[in-house]
Amino acid sequence: MTSMEQQSSANDRTILRELNELVRKTFLLWDEIWVGFSWRHYYFNHTQRVRALCLTIGREEGADLRKLEYAATLHDITKRYDGEILTDSQGKRILNEDGFWLNELLMPKRENVVTRLYRSHNQFHKLHNVSGAVIAQKILEGYSLPREFYSSIGSIIKSHLRPDVYNNDSSEDVLEKKILYEADTIDANIGLTAFYRNVQIRTHRVPHRKDETTLRRYISTIEPWIERKEAFIDLMTTKTGINLARQRLERMKEVHSQIKEELQNYMHNSLEYGLLGVIKGFMDQNTDPNLESELNQLLAKRVIRYENMKIGTKPEAQPIVQRAIKFCQLLSQEMTGEA
């Protein structure tokens, strides 16, 4: 790497750190904890995971990693303007001409450069991929990056909901558009990160602490939910994206099988030590969920329990704790794009 390339790389690191912090602070301009399919900490956690997965797929596919990292960091920058999903008089979700759900406009309680740009460029009621593309370009323009570069970033972001719909504005960056779409889709729908999301969506309206009946009722919904995820494999277009989606789908099926086994046998206090305890813990924390912090606490707690068991406390429960630890480790690997 030449000295000029090193300087450019260092400059990118600085800009990306600033953008990441801007994204984090932007999502917190809204006080609403729950909005439709999202919550206060969801989109920042999601953004970190999508960026990591983009880079994993991009390396294997020979994509432009620089463009992917910028686009993934900013791809949901206006997402929190999406309020509740709009429905018609029959309760069906209202779709636009391209088949996307429409949302109520949810205005932030505070302002920053993103909200000011959103207002000054009149992005109200536009889909977040369209408004996000505009805002991302304006932000990157302020860093004096080349016009062709930030235009590419905008085009990639605009296409991240469905590359086939928004490819008519540019035939460039086709691979990067596909990869951002794949990473975004996989994270929300396939794998243990999607499983965590499903726990929260299905149980967040249940008041207060969740009891065993609520846990059993939720577990009964997992299998049909997983079956619906098979269709997402066909939406992947890169070899790496297809393989990752398949691996995550199989991981979901395996975890579901293990959960059913624990529930049927109630093996060695599995509600306290095993996967049932992990799921119950997710359910109990869904007033204001934050996967990153919850996972660290869960893993540390179970590792300590396992170490205690090895020296003689409830040795019969060791396999159950090991299973829960493996689940947490695999979830952590998905969060960093490693699996």
Descriptive notes:
The strands form 2 sheets. This protein has a two-stranded antiparallel ribbon. The chain has a two-stranded antiparallel ribbon with strand order 3-4. 65% of the residues lie in helices and 3% in strands. The chain folds into 2 domains: 3-187, Hypothetical protein af1432 (Orthogonal Bundle), CATH 1.10.3210; 194-335, no CATH class. By secondary structure, the protein is mostly helical. It is built from 16 helices and 4 strands. Strand 1 and strand 2 form a beta hairpin. The protein has helices at residues 3-27, 42-61, 65-74, 113-120, 128-141, 147-158, 163-166, 174-189, 192-203, 212-219, 222-233, 239-265, 270-273, 275-284, 291-310, 318-335; strands at 34-35, 38-39, 82-85, 103-105.
Reconstruct the topology from this structure:
Layout lengths: L2 H25 L6 E2 L2 E2 L2 H20 L3 H10 L7 E4 L17 E3 L7 H8 L7 H14 L5 H12 L4 H4 L7 H16 L2 H12 L8 H8 L2 H12 L5 H27 L4 H4 L1 H10 L6 H20 L7 H18 L4
Antiparallel strand pairs: 1-2, 3-4
